[in-house]
What does this fold into?
Amino acid sequence: MSRIAQFLAGIKVLDLTQYLPGPLATQMLADMGADVLKIEPPTGDEMRKLGPRDAAGHGIYYEAINAGKTTRTMNLKDEDVRAEFLELVRCADVLFEGFRPGVMERLRIGYQNLSTINPRLIFCSISGFGKTGPLAQMAAHDANYLALSGTLERNGIDRPIYFDPPIADCSSSLTALSAVLAALYSRSRDGKGCEIDIAIADVVMPFQTFSLADLGRQGEVSGRRSTYLNGGSAYYQIYPTRDGRHVALGAIEAKFWSAFCEAAGRPEWIARQSDALPQLSLTAELADYFSLLTLEQCVRQFKSVDCCLAPVLDLKEAVQSPYYQDRGLIRDAGAQGFQAVFPAIVDGEAPAVRRPLQVNTNREGS
It folds into this structure.
């Protein structure tokens, strides 16, 4: 067993979440050794119905995000099943839920009830807009959270651009993970559980620290192409190549920009790094330059140049690249396909491939 798989050995997690945010967080807990029991309604997680199917007809996305866990169905509206669920809660360390605010309370399994049964329980709720506020009951998905948080408006050239993978959803997973780990550490000192309320709409705000600082100091928000991060600069830009591929140039520091300009045979560009944003003229000149080269020529010409230039790879190329092959964190799990295991190498060892999702058929709720 890898060292990282021993970090949370003995920690019992009940996962009542569906789709992506909660299941990704609990999967990472499982990667670190936690015992995760995923509890689903009799109809199953809605994620089962999304995306492509394997040869057996199972949802690939569902199987991927829940590998490493055990699942069972429980009808929590049934009194006998609910009593059985409460017994599971007595022995649990962490509970994740992703219902709209108020649902757990209506089922009489909200934090106030469960904490009387198990005062050490760490109860983590992940919802769109949190348990309080005017949008608490509003339905939304990742694009909506990014739109309402001001993130979409600043990205893109002539219109806002959406992201894949879903940034808000995945960020909420990481936020929940870090909060729960911190709560477990706190509990180890005082023996007390707690209630954690995470709104997916909130989690992208810390990522906008620079923009928030600008807003606070200047009283207004800079638009698209106003910074080097959102298309305003020539030195931090994506350029198409002659063969229809792309390269990403990230020469923010002067030394990297100078190295790029010298290697490109255009030393006159060096002094223009400080041109006012948006650097449309300089960007056009670099676009013309890259349009004469194929991707292979770009890679060959700048391979040994310390200038932060990289080819834009598709996922298949990335997985097969020497870097990811060497790191060993993208693993071939056979029938399960590729897995991105927990991205940490501990004591020189990468995490093991996750076991397939296991179904607990013992006394399933109806």
Summary: The radius of gyration is 24 Å. The chain has a mean pLDDT of 94. The chain is about 35% helix and 15% strand.
